[in-house]
Design goal:
- The protein is an alpha/beta fold.
- The chain has 2 domains: 27-117, 3-Layer(aba) Sandwich (Rossmann fold); 137-259, 3-Layer(aba) Sandwich (Rossmann fold), CATH 3.40.50.720.
- It contains 10 helices and 11 strands.
- The protein has helices at 8-26, 41-57, 72-84, 103-109, 121-128, 137-148, 168-177, 192-197, 241-244, 259-277; strands spanning 4-5, 30-37, 59-66, 88-93, 157-161, 181-185, 201-204, 222-225, 229-231, 234-236, 250-251.
- A 6-stranded parallel β-sheet has the order 1-11-8-7-5-6. Strands 3-2-4 form a 3-stranded parallel β-sheet, with helices on both faces.
- Strand 2 (30-37), helix 2 (41-57) and strand 3 (59-66) form a beta-alpha-beta unit.
- Helix 2 crosses helix 10 (259-277), helix 6 (137-148) packs parallel to helix 7 (168-177) and helix 6 (137-148) packs across helix 10.
- The longest helix is centred in the N-terminal third of the chain and has 19 residues, at 8-26.
- It is globular and about 55 Å long.
- The termini are far apart.
- The relative contact order is 0.17.
Amino acid sequence: MKIMIIDGKKVSKEIVEEYKEKFNKLNKEVNFAIIWIGEDNASEIYVKNKIKKCEYVGIKTKLYHLEETISEEEVLELIDELNKDSKVHGILLQSPVPQHIDIIKCFNKIDYKKDIDGFSNKSVGNLYLGRPFHISCTPKGIVRLLDYYQIDLNGLNVCIINRSNIVGKPLFHLLLERNATITMCHSKTKNLKEHTKMADIVISAVGKPKFITADMIKDKAIVIDVGISRIAGKVVGDVDFENVSKKASYITPVPGGVGPMTIAMILENIYNAVKEEI
C-alpha cells in the first residue's frame, strides 16, 4: 500500500514564506513579547526557534528571561505592562513555569487579543463557542496539515490520545467543528487498542516512544504523531513509524511533522492580532 508522508516541514515553510510577505506588506513595526522563566533546556530550544522564525518574517521579538525565583506578582505586573503597551501586538508565556507560579492565572492576565498561544479563559471559551480569535498553535497546526492534504474530516472517527489544555481539549473542539466524531483517550482509558482500532484518524500526544504500534491501528488509518521523546540523542515520536507506516494511508514523521507547524501558527496568530488593530 502506498503511504503519504504528511510533511509538516514543507507545509510550514510555505506558511512562513506567505507570512513573511504579508508582514512586509503591512509596512508596520510588529512587536512580540516572550516571557521565559527559569532555565529549562527544552524551553530554551523552543524560545530560540520562535525568535528565529519571528525575526525571519520581520517581527521584532523581545525576550523577557526572568529568574526562577521571581514572584508571581512580578510576572503579573510585567504582563499588565505589556497589555497596556500599544506597541506590543502579542504576548507568549513559555511553559513550564516554576511551581510557585500559577500559570493559569498568568495566562488569564494576558489580553486575549494578545494571547498568541490561545490559553486564556476567554480564548478557550471563544473556541468552545465556535468563535475563536487566537487558537492554540499545535492543534491549529494539526488541522492545517489535514486541510493541506485535503483530508475531509466530515463523518470520520478520530481518536485523540491526550486530554491536556494545550493539545487534546482544543483539538477536540476544532475537529468537532469539522463534523468529526471524536473519542478522547487518556492515561485512565481502558482497552485503548479497542478505541484506536475503530478510528479513521489516530492522534497521539503522550510522549512515549513507540507507544502506538501497528496492531493498534486499522488498515489505511491516518496517523498524526504529536509526541516528542529522545532516545540516545535521537528525537522520536509516539508512533512506531517503521511498522505503522506499512498500514497507514497518511502519517506524520517525527521530527518534521507537527512540530514545525506550531511555530508557523504563532506567526499567523501574531499577524491576526496586528490586523485586528489596523
